[in-house]
Structure formats: C-alpha cells, structure tokens
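quick one, 171 residues, struct below
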Amino acid sequence: MGDSVMSDKAGKRASWINKSLWALAVSSGAALLPSAPALADAPPQAVSAAKADAAEPSAVEVIFAGFSRRADKSASIFVRMTGEVPVALDRAGRRLTYRLSGAKLGVPNSGNPLPTEHFVPPVSNVALVPSAAGVDLIIDLSSDPDGDGPAPRIVSSGGLSTLHVDLPAAR
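---
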C-alpha cells in the first residue's frame, strides 16, 4: 500500500504534459528556466533558446501612455515604463517624435493612438509606434512648437519610470 503505479500510457501522457508546459513557458517569454529534470527531457534547441532568453536582459516595457489637460490649457503627455531608457527628440513641422531606445510595447493595446483632438489644443494626436530601435512617442501638435519642442523628463520611483512631456498652451 502507499505505492503508486503508473501505466506506461499515463507515464507518456505526463511526460508530454511536462514538455508542453515547458514549451509554452519558453514561447511566452517566461523569465525563469525550468528545473534540471525538465531540461533533460527537452529538445536541445529549446534548451539553448531558454538559456539565451535568461542570459540577456529584457527590454524596458512601455506599459501605457496618457494625456492630461490643465486649467491653463497646457497639456502633459506621459508614458509609464518598467525602467529608464535613453530618449531622443526629433521635430518635423508640428510633429514631435520622442525615440525611446531599447523599449518595447508591453501590451499591444498601448499602440492605439490617443485621440486628443477632442480636448482642444495644444495636442491633436498622440501615438506609441514600435520602431527598429525601440518605441517612438509621436505627438502631433495643433500649432508650431517653440524651438525644437519641449524637453522630456523622466521620473523614476518604485522600479517604474514615467516619461513626461509638458506642452504649453497653444498660441
């Protein structure tokens, strides 16, 4: 009594389930490596892929973007991220592009534009767009900006970072 007996069919099913769960964890980008016994049963290419994923640092994820309009009709655009990244500003006419190098969209919905034209100037549209180097924060203004555009600032707290772009009221 107390001994468990597993049929050969049940043993194969358990092995298949373990391998399937392991493959699911690898394909979903799980950060933890499976235990040594699970690696022993895994195909060699999956083992090397899991070790490579664990060795390289994960990119900073963009969690969401937001818009806030103030009483003086100025506005603030903010982007919440899982860490800090370098930010570069490019300006082309009324379009400001803040390039977040090394970032990635954490949630596909974060790529949907913020239709800010309903809130009156200074901003007509805000969007997060994936790029080859990371993620671009694109801000379309309703009037020409002063100089090159507002300098971004990053505030970090509790392991999260927020990029702020403060825009003056439209002229």
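DSSP finds three helices and nine strands in the chain.
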